């Protein structure tokens, strides 16, 4: 068996515009972005699909993208090509596209070719992508040349035929993958290791180990069984390949529940395990051999499956697409839309291919005539959602040339036949309109339906830009009665430009909604769009009111936060509007279709909330880099924001001391007062200079990374035990080591530079960025020796009820307040901003402001205290900045799938739930899972459980409507009794209980109109004079006094 080869991913970002690429770096890594910057890619065939692939790759930052085409622009291209217009008809497709594609990223060189491809020309590229090729002969030649080239040129073929697509990948006979998933390596704390063959490992129950069969791991810090520790740990340089000790990569044979695993290692003769240790997942090289295109036609291997409801369909389509090629070779064109004779000929070709297949090659029992016929009948269709979907997949395949992520192996077939109406579509002769590619599949009447849609798009970020492009090309809201309402409250930032492709450098600082709508209008001048900057939420219901929501046909979310999604979802439920929901996270994406009275809503099921880091772990017992990064961010906020604002409040004479008195513990009061007083004294009435800032930074280093750690070890010595006699420093509690400052250590000095410059910013003092200058300054600082304090109380864990702090904290608080009183407020100058000091408001996207730099150095120094693997600048930025990794490929792909669901939603009630699809995709693996949406739950009474519903079987989509005019409380009670035989037990409106029969004074309200009472007495509900209805919550019970649940809310119509 070959020894596994470990490759550490390079983090070198030299030459990478990290501001522009800040959302992509967490996905690909800075080192892989540098690889891509040296890549030359040829995209041959600039149809709508070719343009999508080019756009996604240019945004991702490849070195050279060459677009090649010999075809002329036709009307049918305009249905999916976002950079072609009516004026381009008859021009070369690549020539007409180049200038606009080149605008997407100034770092990418976009070349053009319109001549037939030759072997010499192909020789310059590392990847060749052939798109919608009509000639099988040309495909075979190009693919054979690429496969035989040394080293192999990656060859990718992609075709879209209406609602069908085919993707083929050939990475050559010797492709190396060093990270199949792109996920962060797992780490777990060890609690036991057996002396056996194979060895059995048990991990701490703090969290599941998350490892699987076939993974590789290493061991470190194990006590007793020291032989198992990896001797080569930390010896490999990033980007360097190296064969290492067998203990550097041990294979996992099987898992034993969530906290156990069996590894390929004989520990029989090792010393017994006595405690401690970590198990770390290791990424190792995997060598994969790909077949050539020619060989794969006959021996395709296993097909990827995206929808298990269509099991066996890929095997059929493998013949169907070959049959289309042969039809094209014979007729020089694809089958005509709706032409039954052409379809029958394609079916027969497929049958012949299957019948004549050699023994041992690909073969099916029987050709599915209905499937292949539909492929032929819609083959000339050119649909933007399909181009967006496949364009995202193929661009991600190109990126995999770096060795990161797992390529398609090797065929991927996909169809969305369920988009077609139940009744056959009557397709007219195509007469030259920009929607011909869509009309070829769905007909003219459906195109008019799309044009007259009233659609609300919430968000104009990455998803929103892709949706706008898709909707413009699909002709949505481009009819006389259509209107696309768009809203987004954000401004454009530089980091947006790597995936929000409607924006340019000149748009930075402008509003997203206005710029995005203008760009979409350029793609389709007939698009009727209204842009807004008003957010959607409870506070803006005067803008997004009943009239607005009632007038919408469809809502599409393009949001990046749960709260806003839930609100839009609740409004769609209230107004019975279909909602298309989607989201991305790096290479992962999901989409959900929500149909009134049919499916569950977005809010019906939610992921569990992220687990917060326990305060005790954060303060004293970190064991993961995430803990130290969060600690570093807290220190940033405490030093450079909170303490500064406290000092400003004190200078301004506000209620600073009153706020301090409200703080619960004396230890916390002391900490805030010390920080504020220290800042005021350091400033020294405006006499502080940069040397002052350096001295403070050096003393903070000593306090944070030496003194605090030494005090912790004084309280809990290394040989301390718990009340049960177990070692205190075990499991998640890692024993720390105080650090000794070394000016020649880059992390130590960088901490001083960042901290001093941030304080200088607070003080309006000129900053010093020169390392040698700062190094000289820090050498002048006197650091007093440390002596541990007696009587300091530190919690030993989350269950410890000890009140932290020192015994004399109360007296120290009084002293600090007195010391503050001795300072002269009048000597602290207040600037034009009305403040003496300038707080540092955390900004993650400016790498020059020292915010992330401080957090990185502080986190890594604390990690050194606790022997935790450090994190580089980019990983720290991702975690501290709560950055959601994003890349154009994933965004484009998922919006394409949403577009396919839109086709179904527009067809209305005729589409059963079985034809809708929710999608879950991971382009890294790659994995495609489509499934039928969950139906909405029907509430059914169960006397045995004490559950009673009225009316029986109501769902979240049902409303209890009372259309009896402007009624009183008494009339409401009488109506429920007379019509539904229910007693009203309470009525609420907004956040106010407005009626309860058990409250004596509420009986006085019975003769009052509900609307009148709400207007005068319920400030939490804004009922306007123009409103035609209102919402209340009514609780009821039956004659026996049993609770009866009715739909919530109750709608009172009074006009």
UniProtKB/TrEMBL annotation:
PROSITE patterns to which the protein is assigned, alphabetical: UBIQUITIN_ACTIVAT_2
Gene Ontology cellular-component annotations: cytoplasm; SUMO activating enzyme complex
Keywords for the protein's UniProt record, in alphabetical order: ATP-binding, Ligase, Nucleotide-binding, Ubl conjugation pathway
Active site: 616 (glycyl thioester intermediate)
UniProt-listed InterPro entries: E1_4HB, E1_FCCH, E1_FCCH_sf, ThiF/MoeB/HesA, ThiF_NAD_FAD-bd, Ub-activating_enz_E1_C, Ub-E1_IAD_1, UBA_E1_C_sf
Molecular-function GO term, any one: ATP binding
Nucleotide-binding in keyword set: yes
Residue numbers spanned by region Disordered: 789-808
Gene3D superfamilies: NAD(P)-binding Rossmann-like Domain, Ubiquitin-activating enzyme E1, FCCH domain, Ubiquitin-activating enzyme E1, inactive adenylation domain, subdomain 1, Ubiquitin-activating enzyme E1, inactive adenylation domain, subdomain 2, Ubiquitin-activating enzyme E1, SCCH domain, Ubiquitin-activating enzyme E1, UFD domain
GO biological process: protein sumoylation
Catalyzed reactions: ATP + ubiquitin + [E1 ubiquitin-activating enzyme]-L-cysteine = AMP + diphosphate + S-ubiquitinyl-[E1 ubiquitin-activating enzyme]-L-cysteine
EC number: 6.2.1.45
Record-annotated Ubiquitin-activating enzyme E1 C-terminal domain positions: 916-1050
Involved pathway(s): Protein modification; protein ubiquitination
CDD domains cross-referenced by the UniProt entry: Ube1_repeat2 (cd01490)
Family, as annotated: Belongs to the ubiquitin-activating E1 family.
Name by which UniProt lists this protein: E1 ubiquitin-activating enzyme
Protein source organism: Acanthamoeba castellanii (strain ATCC 30010 / Neff)
């Amino acid at each position: 068996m070959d020894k596994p080869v470990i490759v550490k991913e390079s983090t070198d970002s030299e030459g990478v515009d990290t501001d522009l690429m800040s959302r992509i770096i967490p996905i690909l890594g800075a080192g892989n972005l540098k690889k891509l910057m040296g890549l030359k890619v040829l995209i041959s065939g600039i149809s709508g699909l070719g343009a999508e692939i080019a756009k996604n790759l240019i945004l991702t930052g490849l070195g050279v993208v060459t677009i090649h085409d010999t075809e002329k622009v036709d009307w049918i291209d305009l249905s999916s090509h976002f950079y072609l217009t009516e004026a381009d008809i008859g021009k070369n497709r690549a020539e007409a596209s180049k200038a606009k594609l080149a605008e997407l990223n100034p770092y990418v060189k976009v070349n053009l070719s319109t001549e037939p491809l030759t072997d010499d020309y192909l020789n310059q590229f590392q990847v060749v992508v052939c798109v919608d090729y009509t000639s099988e002969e040309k495909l075979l030649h190009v693919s054979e040349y690429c496969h035989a080239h040394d080293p192999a040129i990656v060859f990718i073929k992609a075709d879209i035929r209406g609602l069908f697509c085919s993707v083929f990948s050939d990475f050559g006979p010797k492709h190396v993958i060093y990270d199949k998933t792109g996920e962060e390596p797992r780490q777990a704390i060890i609690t036991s290791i057996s002396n056996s063959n194979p060895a059995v490992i048990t991990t701490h129950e703090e969290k599941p180990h998350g490892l699987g069969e076939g993974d590789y791991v290493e061991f470190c810090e194990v006590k007793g069984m020291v032989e198992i520790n990896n001797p080569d740990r930390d010896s490999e340089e990033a980007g360097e390949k190296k064969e290492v000790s067998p203990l550097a990569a041990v294979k996992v044979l099987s898992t034993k529940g969530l906290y156990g695993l069996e590894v390929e290692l004989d520990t029989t003769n090792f010393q017994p395990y006595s405690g401690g240790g970590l198990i770390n997942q290791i990424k190792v090289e995997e060598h994969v051999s790909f077949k050539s295109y020619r060989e794969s036609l006959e021996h395709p291997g296993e097909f990827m499956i995206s929808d298990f409801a269509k099991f066996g369909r890929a095997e059929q389509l493998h013949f169907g697409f070959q049959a289309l090629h042969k039809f094209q070779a014979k007729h020089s064109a694809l089958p005509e839309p709706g032409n039954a004779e052409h379809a029958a000929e394609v079916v027969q070709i497929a049958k012949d291919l299957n019948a004549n297949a050699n023994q041992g090659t690909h073969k099916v029992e029987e050709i599915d005539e209905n499937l292949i016929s539909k492929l032929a009948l819609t083959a000339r269709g050119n649909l933007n959602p399909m181009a967006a979907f496949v364009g995202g997949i193929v661009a991600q395949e190109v990126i995999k040339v770096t060795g990161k992520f797992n390529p398609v192996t090797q065929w991927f077939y996909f169809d969305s036949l369920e988009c077609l109406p139940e009744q056959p579509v009557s397709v007219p002769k195509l007469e030259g309109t920009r929607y011909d590619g869509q009309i070829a599949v769905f007909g003219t009447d459906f195109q008019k339906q799309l044009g007259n849609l009233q659609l609300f798009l919430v968000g104009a970020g990455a998803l929103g830009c892709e949706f706008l492009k898709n909707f413009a090309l699909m002709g949505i809201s481009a009819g006389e009665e259509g209107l696309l309402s768009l809203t987004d409250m954000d401004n454009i930032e530089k980091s947006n430009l790597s995936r929000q492709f409607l924006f340019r450098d000149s748009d930075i600082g402008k509003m997203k909604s206005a710029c995005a709508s203008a760009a979409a209008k350029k793609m389709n001048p007939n698009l009727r769009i209204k842009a807004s900057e008003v957010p959607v939420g409870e506070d803006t219901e005067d803008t997004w009111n009943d009239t607005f929501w009632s007038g919408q046909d469809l809502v599409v979310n393009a949001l990046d936060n749960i709260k806003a999604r839930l609100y839009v979802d609740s409004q769609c439920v209230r107004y019975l509007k279909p909602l298309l929901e989607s989201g991305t996270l790096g290479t992962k994406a999901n989409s959900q279709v929500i149909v009134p009275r049919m499916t569950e809503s977005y809010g019906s099921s939610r992921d569990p909330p992220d687990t917060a880091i326990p305060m005790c772990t954060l303060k004293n017992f970190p064991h993961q880099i995430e803990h130290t990064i969060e600690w570093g961010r807290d220190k940033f906020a405490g030093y450079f924001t909170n303490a500064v604002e406290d000092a400003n409040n004190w200078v301004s004479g506000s209620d600073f001391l009153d706020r301090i008195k409200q703080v619960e513990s004396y230890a916390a009061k002391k900490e805030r007062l010390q920080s504020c007083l220290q800042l005021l004294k350091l400033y020294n009435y405006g006499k502080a200079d940069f040397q002052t800032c350096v001295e403070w930074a050096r003393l903070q280093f000593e306090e944070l990374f030496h003194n605090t750690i030494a005090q912790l070890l004084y309280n809990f010595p290394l040989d301390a035990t718990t009340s049960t006699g177990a070692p205190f420093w075990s499991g998640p509690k890692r024993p720390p080591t105080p650090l000794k400052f070394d000016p020649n250590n880059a992390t130590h000095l960088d901490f001083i530079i960042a901290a001093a410059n941030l304080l200088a910013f607070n003080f309006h003092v000129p900053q010093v960025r020169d390392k040698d200058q700062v190094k000289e300054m820090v050498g002048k600082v006197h650091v007093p020796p440390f002596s541990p304090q007696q009587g300091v109380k530190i919690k030993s864990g989350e269950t410890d009820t000890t009140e932290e702090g020192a015994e004399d904290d109360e007296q120290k608080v009084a002293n600090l307040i007195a010391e503050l009183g001795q300072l002269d407020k009048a000597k602290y100058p207040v600037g034009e901003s009305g403040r003496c000091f300038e707080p540092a408001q955390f900004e993650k996207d400016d790498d020059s402001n020292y915010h992330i730099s401080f957090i990185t150095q502080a986190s890594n120094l604390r990690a050194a205290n606790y022997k935790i693997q450090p994190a580089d600048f980019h990983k720290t930025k991702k975690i501290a900045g709560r950055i959601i990794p994003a890349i154009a490929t994933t965004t484009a792909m998922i919006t394409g799938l949403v577009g396919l669901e839109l086709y179904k939603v527009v067809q209305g009630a005729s589409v059963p739930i079985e034809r809708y699809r929710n999608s879950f995709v991971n382009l890294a693996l790659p994995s495609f899972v489509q499934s039928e949406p969950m139906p909405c739950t029907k509430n059914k009474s169960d006397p045995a459980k004490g559950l009673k519903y009225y009316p029986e079987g109501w769902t979240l989509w049902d409303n209890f409507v009372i259309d009896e005019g402007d009624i009183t409380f008494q009339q409401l009670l009488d109506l429920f009794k007379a019509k539904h035989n229910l007693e009203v037990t309470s009525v609420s409106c907004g956040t106010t209980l407005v009626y309860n029969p058990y409250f004596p004074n509420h009986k006085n309200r019975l003769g009052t109109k509900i609307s009148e009472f709400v207007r005068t007495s319920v400030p939490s509900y804004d009922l306007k004079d123009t409103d035609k209805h209102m919402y209340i919550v009514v609780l009821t019970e039956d004659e026996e006094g049993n609770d009866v649940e009715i739909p919530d809310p109750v709608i009172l119509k009074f006009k």
